[in-house]
Amino acid sequence: MRVFVDGGRRLRFDDGTPVTAASAIAPLGDGWLVAQDDATSAAWRRAGSVTPVRVLPPVEGLDRFSEAAGTKGLKPDLEVACPAVVDGEPAVLLLGSGSSPRRMRGVLVRLVDGEPVATAADLAPLYGHAAGLLGLPMDQLNLEGAARHEDRVRWFHRGNLAAGFPSASVDLSLEALVAAVLGRADAAAVRVGNPLRYDLGEVEGVGLAVTDAVALPDGRMLLSAAAEDTPNAVDDGPVVATALALVDDGTVTAVVPLPEVVGHVHKVEGLALRAVDGATVHLLAVVDDDDPDASSAELHLRVELG
After folding, report:
1. Of 19, 71, 153, 157, whose CB neighbour count within 10 A is largest?
2. Domain limits of the chain?
3. What is the fold of 2-304?
4. If pLDDT is split at 50, 70 and 90, which confidence band does 292 have?
């Protein structure tokens, strides 16, 4: 497997303010919805335009959060953007990371008369099921990625080898998950199964851990991964390397470093599938560089599987 960066740009809203802490991306209408893990709004990126989309109400009167301001613990930490379906229409499912009660919410974003509309719900029981199945204490749960294949969602826990927890995943029904977010079903009734664990290796003594995933048409998955030197699921740390991994169910078949861009290691946190042409996969990736003042980067990745 080989990986190439074919281009990229910095993401800014139409008023010039930066899109920050981009953590996930999924198709929405004629564009892409980008989650910001430090805010209650997402960014709808379309040709020639990037507009904000409110996905959650303010938290204690705040819509943006940072460690410098002492508000990082308040953020909803939306880390997943997964293509979904609501009543036969395409939608985007956003999910929090789960490492604290504030981060256990799900949001569905749909287009109504061409405009994004968000519906949110507390999914704490579901997060508890996932943590129990993976044998994780709740404060170490860090669900940062998800990939949809047909009617199933594979939900990925970003491991931390320093804390003794590998990257892992669980499976659940997309229909059941959507119903829970819409309030049509009890979140506690959503079944979670098929726990898998992944050994992605280490770089400079720091373990590579999953940050997002996309499913290929044949069911295999491409994972983005980062080697971030941090002791837990909340604190940021220096990123020594990033990579893409190809997995077939629970088997890791390839791990390839992501090319540096102008000498910089970009921490890719969101992946979306643009196209598959034979053994060539085109991805759209978004980057969270853990800088609250910097606009996030969007990268066009080309993966040669052969």
Report:
1. 157
2. 2-304
3. Neuraminidase (2.120.10)
4. confident
